[in-house]
Amino acid sequence: MNLKELYQEIILEHGKNPRNIGKTENFNKDAKGHNPLCGDSVHVYLKLDNKNKVEDVSFEGSGCAISMASASIMTDLVKGKEENEVREIINDFLGMIKINPNLKSKNLNDDEKTKLMCLSGVKQYPMRVKCATLSWHTLISAIDNKNEEINTEKFD
Amino acid sequence: MNIDTIKKEFPIFDEKIQNNDLVYLDSANSSQKPKVVLDRINEFYRKQFSNVGRSVHYLAVAATNLYENTRSSVQKYINAKDKNEIVFTKGATEALNLVANTLGQTFLEPDDEVIITELEHHSNYVPWHFLRKSKDIKIKFAEINEDGDVPIENIEKEITDKTKVIAITHLSNVTGSILPIKEITQLAHSKGIIVVVDGCQGGPHLKLDMQDLDCDFYAISCHKMYGPTGLGVLYGKKKWLEQLPPYQGGGGMINEVKKDSISYGDLPNKYEAGTMATAQVIAFDQSIKFLESIGIDNVIEHEKKLIEYGQEIIQKNNSVKLIGNPKKRGGVLSFIIEGIHPHDIATILDEDGVAIRAGHHCCQILHDKLNIPASARASLGVYNTKDDLDKLNDAINNCKKIFDLK
């Protein structure tokens, strides 16, 4: 893994033009996240329908290409999925970004897996792992209705 | 000592870092260490180690003398009147906490005002914030101008008859602005206001003359001055250090301890509770000697040329914007690149062996004011060369290429 593989087209593209930016209309869950080391911040908004399916999801925030791309790809992927599926995807992603070589989730198709694997390069850059995981921890917090701001310093 | 060959004195530059020659541009964070300092730590632990100030055996006496030698060297280096005006601390952060805490205990009343500037490092804000919480003091921020300087008028504007302390940086770790400490102190003293200086960046880059500056307190970070980590110096005028209460209690700082009463030791022991960073203090003497052997005037001249060169090449580089345009800039070039977040810049530069810092550099107030979440910072030390700055520029260009910027 080298730098070019970390900053590949898809990350740069999502970093520059993040999808799902803004505040979801009529959101029913939300959470804020913050990385005190670098000042990155994210606010995730979620609208679950009455069957606990993600009807819409969006985020606001500022940060580096890695954190913006990660939030952008994440929000794209979880849209339309059920809450328990989303939880499973988050765990799978966090596992992959830290130790696992691959994604195992049955709730992601191959195309979605390929997209997410673009972020696997941060493993080689320990100082940047939290950039990639900030929005994912924040999404869990939103789902769980934890009314506390996510602080990346509190995670491994 | 020839400043052009000074890099050779620093063993780290013999190392390949991720297969690259190291271009170290993070000295405002912490400087690299010359061989004399490293050797001194090793030699002390191997051949001379003992705790200081306690035992009567040979090694203890010898170590105590070495420890006190550094105090005298620091006294001379910063032109303090008395060696007891030099207090060793865990770092400049502890030095500033010591001042805020002890002034807070005895001298500051609710509604009293402390003036700091928008340039301050969190170390010179948070300790005063503690007093805002515990003693109900007020903190006022002297504003920066559009160049990132704090003109003396902006400090004067904030002074009222409630102002008790002005706590300011000597040299900003983000904009590189050098503040007119001498003039600010004259103004402050004419109104009976205490002046506390955060000298973290002043220490390595400026001539330190306490008689000339006349400030009441000056905090130094030894690891930014080619010395070991875990060590700082607080200079305080004797009249203050004698008057103020101890900061921490423990061994070494007492005179007599009874069940119903305790009396404290004299200066400087009063402020040096517990076992101090002995080896670091003793090795710091070598840092002072190292700086003296080059001559601070030569250091200043060398860094001035580098800063001018760095400003020139960075300003020529499209989409790169320098932070601040101070009248006098020391040691630091902070910048942003339109369209690339500073953390991405730092990671990509690192791959080319160029070590910079990205983030808010413990100055969130300043970054909020400038309306940017973070910046990239290249900071200099005596070992840097024009070649380092060329490599910085090349790495910036590589970064722009990856992000497809012109």
Describe this structure in words.
The complex is a heterodimer of chains A (156) and B (406). Chain A is of the alpha+beta class and 156 residues long. Chain A has one domain: Sufe protein. Chain: A (Alpha-Beta Complex). Chain A contains six helices and four strands. In chain A, a hairpin with a 5-residue loop joins β2 and β3. In chain A, α2 (9-16) packs across α3 (65-78) and α3 (65-78) packs parallel to α6. Chain A is globular. The mean pLDDT of chain A is 90. With 406 residues, chain B is of the alpha/beta class. Chain B has two domains: 3-30 and 295-402, Aspartate Aminotransferase, domain 1 (Alpha-Beta Complex), CATH 3.90.1150.10; 38-292, Aspartate Aminotransferase, domain 2. Helix content of chain B is 39%, strand content 17%. In chain B, a hairpin with a 4-residue loop joins β11 and β12 (262-264). In chain B, α1 runs antiparallel to α10, α2 packs parallel to α10 (278-294) and α11 (296-316) runs parallel beside α14. Chain B is globular. The model of chain B has no long low-confidence stretch (mean pLDDT 96). The A-B interface holds A 2-4, 6-7, 12, 15-16, 37-41, 62-66, 125, 127-128, 131 and B 339-344, 347-348, 351, 358-360, 364, 367, 373-374, 402-404.
